[in-house]
Amino acid sequence: MQPDTIEKTTTLEVDSTKSIIGMLREELKLELENLGITDSFRVKQLYHWVYNKGVQSFDEMTNIAKDLRELLKQHYNINRPKIVKEQISFDGTRKWLIQFADGELAEMVYIPESERGTLCISSQVGCTLTCKFCHTGTQKLVRNLTPYEIVSQVMVVRDRLEEWPSTRLPRLVSNIVLMGMGEPLYNYENVKKAMQIVMDKEGISISRRKITLSTSGVVPELDNCASEIGVNLAVSLHATTNEIRDDIVPLNKKYPIEELLAACRRYTEISNTKKITFEYVMLDGVNDSDQDAKRLIKLIKGIPAKINLIPFNPWPGTIYKCSPWTRIQKFAEILENAGYVSPVRTPRGRDILAACGQLKSDSVRKSKSIFKKEAEEANA
Fold first, then answer.
1. Per the domain annotation, does 371 fall within a domain?
2. Which of 94, 175, 202, 321 is deepest in the core (most CB within 10 A)?
3. pLDDT on residue 19
4. How many domains does the chain have?
5. What is the rounded CA–CA span in Å between residue 235 and residue 57?
6. Cα–Cα distance measured from residue 360 to residue 349, given in angstroms and rounded to the nearest whole number
7. Active site residue: 127, 264, 322, 356, which one?
8. Percentage of the chain surpassing pLDDT 90?
9. Is the separation of the CB atoms in 176 and 198 below 8 Å?
């Protein structure tokens, strides 16, 4: 079955005002004080309209005086990124390509299930890593996303699913995973700020227990993440020896398995999370032997954990194949016999390249000479 595809053309609008989306409550307070508004109740009202009600126009803020709304319009905006393409898989998975003000693109995926709805968001345009089995890794890093661009992904999807206010139940978007484009811990400060906004109970109000950050193992930031954000952690392990992981996850050359797992042990203690999820993509003849399964058990001993086994999702140009189903089952059986919950992730949205490791946009990193040329043409 072919996926339903909706394509939208968009003209980028230049807006000289500042976005409120991406501001913490304290920042919003300072902004209003600069306008001469010192009433803390106004801050609460505005914050609630933006992040809880999800309004897209200041005119919708009916309990704020008209003259104040006009003043806000002069200085601020609550614009969203533009959806330029939407794809709907035969299994209900949705993938959106969104465009930011500078024209750069990122992808996000919504996975509806019977008991929850998971939104997979991006933290970078492209990726700084080059994991060999990942489609996103074939796209060089273009840039980090700002707190506005991270938070607005959640808001765009809530707009699309008509899921405002935040208190509405049941929730279509109940869970957030930072598993889209990019390595979140290489954009740590922006991700931290964005998640603080998303978790604020007076706004978007998604609990930290419903948010999972996925990392390939940027060890120096893991302690900070544990103490300052404290969300669930998913670690893209994918190998049981440094030799294999050096090849398929090159970051391992900088932070080898031993250092990564030591940081994982600290994470559970600092953040008080119940379990760490280890992501393990099943690559035929690469990392899927019985010996790999037994080594994995020894490596994670003592870490409260579950292991997600991910059937490899093919993409154009890949050199890898997915492990046969019987091999995946045997691998899972060894782990489960050792006491580890080891679900095999059901691939979702493969037909629209929305499955794990398949995201990639058409944004291209520009050289300084290209930026200079564009600037000269704009000023001509």
1. no
2. 94
3. 97
4. 2
5. 39
6. 14
7. 356
8. 74
9. yes
Domain-located, residue 358: no
Q: Are residues 322 and 255 in the same domain?
A: yes
Residue reference for tokens 């997600």: 308
193 and 223 together in one domain: yes
Residue 29 and residue 104 in one domain: no
Query: Which of 31, 104, 107, 221 does the annotation list as catalytic?
Result: 107
Asked, for residue 232, whether it belongs to a domain, the answer is yes
The reply to whether 333 belongs to the active site is no
What pLDDT is attached to residue 132? 79
Domain enclosing residue 72, as ranges: 19-77
What are the phi and psi torsion angles at 190 (to 5°)? -70, -40
Strands (E), the chain: 4-7, 18-19, 76-77, 82-88, 94-99, 105-112, 117-120, 124-125, 143-144, 175-178, 211-215, 232-236, 276-282, 305-311
Token pair 């979702």: residue: 348
- Residue 379 pLDDT exceeds 80: no
Q: Is 356 a catalytic residue?
A: yes
CATH number assigned to the domain comprising residue 35: 1.10.150.530
pLDDT tens, position by position, 69-79: 999 999 999 99
Q: Are 50 and 93 found together in one domain?
A: no
User: What is the spatial distance between Cα 156 and Cα 160, in angstroms, rounded to a whole number?
Assistant: 6
Full-model pTM: 0.86
